[in-house]
Amino acid sequence: MDWKREIQHPDWFDLYAGLEAKSVGVRGYDIGRIWGLLQTASYARALVRYFKGPAADPVSVEKTVRARLARQERFLDPDGPPLVSVLNEGVIRQVVGGPEVMHEQLQHLLDLPQQYSNINIHVAPFSLGERTGATGTITLIELTDGERWAYAESLGSGHMINNAAAVAERFRAYDRLRAESLSASDSARLIHSVMRGLRNMTSSPVPTFYATRHANWKKSTYSEGDGGNCIEAALNLATVDGVVPVRDSKDRSGPELEISAAGWSAFVSAVRAGEFGAL
């Protein structure tokens, strides 16, 4: 799809959108919201509705949302250009569109790097303090001829920078920020921890983090037939996430208790050794 012909962007955004469309690599840092290239439709719609105001034409809202999602297409491919995002921790904790919309958005952040090898997502934790070194949203673009651009955005407008020295300085600052931020796996753990809180706020069942990580639930054979009450555990995630989720086998949609892999191993060893008496 030739999205530049089908989609209309604000005039001030056209230059950036054109460069992004032919980029060979894009890096972004956001302090106020999830990056547009990573947004779900529901999350984007909530933002657009707010900025357009309560009297916004629904058709106009949907056109803007489609424009934003269309920009994502070339990156949602294992062979797509590298896409690196550093999100300030406040971005993943700020609820946009309500708990369910935010839960879906955070799940999307967890899914993307699993599905597309060209996408990397990191979180800059609050503990970095002034070491974030940035006071606003910044996007860095690399083109095939080695040309590099920086794009800074504020409410309702954007500013393109192509001065070589100024752009190089921003690339160096971004590299420092990415190095100081959480690793991809630690970022995923933090995102998941935020999702747990949102799950308790939602009004309808939502998929859990572990459901998308192919949890293989196992329960004791003693629980079959007249075995009585039992728990079940997703043992395969001990090597994937370093934790063993445990739940009531009679209430599989209920809460899950997360136990460290080492703690679970110690528990199983104690049971086998009879330290808890006859069970």
Describe it.
This protein is α+β, with helices and mostly antiparallel strands and 279 residues long. It is 39% helix and 19% strand. The protein is built from ten helices and ten strands. It has helices spanning 3-6, 14-21, 41-52, 58-70, 89-93, 99-115, 164-180, 184-199, 209-212, 261-272; strands spanning 25-30, 83-88, 119-124, 137-142, 148-154, 157-161, 217-219, 231-234, 243-248, 257-260. A hairpin with a 5-residue loop joins β4 and β5 (148-154). The chain is elongated, with a radius of gyration of 22 Å. The N and C termini lie far apart (62 Å). The model is unreliable at 1-9 and 203-212 (pLDDT under 50).
Helix and strand layout, with pairings?
Blueprint (H helix, E strand, L loop, with lengths): L2 H4 L7 H8 L3 E6 L10 H12 L5 H13 L12 E6 H5 L5 H17 L3 E6 L12 E6 L5 E7 L2 E5 L2 H17 L3 H16 L9 H4 L4 E3 L11 E4 L8 E6 L8 E4 H12 L7
Descriptors for this entry?
279 residues, 6-stranded mixed β-sheet, 4-stranded antiparallel β-sheet, 10 helices, elongated, disordered N terminus
Measured as a percent range, the helix fraction is 25-40%
Number of helices: 10
Which structural class matches the secondary elements? Answer: alpha+beta
Contiguous uncertain segments of 5+ residues: 1-9, 203-212
Q: Order of SSEs, N→C?
A: HHEHHEHHEEEEHHHEEEEH
Shape: elongated
Mean pLDDT: 82
How many E strands? 10
Amount of beta strand: 15-25%
Biggest pleated sheet = 6 strands, mixed
| Rg (CA only) | 22 Å
Q: Could you give the distance between the termini? A: 62 Å
Strands of the biggest beta sheet: in what spatial order?
Answer: 3-2-1-4-5-6
